[in-house]
Write a structure and sequence with these properties.
It contains 4 helices and no strands. With 102 residues, the chain is mostly helical.
Amino acid sequence: MSSRSHTVNAVRTEIVSAIAEVRAAARLGQDEQRVHTADWLDELFAGVFDRRGLREASAQGLTLYRGGMGSFRDVGYAAAGHAVDRLYTALRRGRSWFLRDS
């Protein structure tokens, strides 16, 4: 993503897309916990359309990545690993102070 497209809407779209990828990988791996987590994340970002809301929702989403073994990032198959890493990157981008509103 170029710096030119770092708008609230573009980053929110990236996050929602990454959530969908996590959900798809979780379903493929029959990982119900990550499916439920993706549902929670969808709800978290459903009403977010401004910089403050995106930063707050991203911060909440990033709490999934705390911890060691057994954490959200601790996956056992490549598709989920890629999806979880992509979501992490998108959530970190959502915490940026440099997002433009449009």
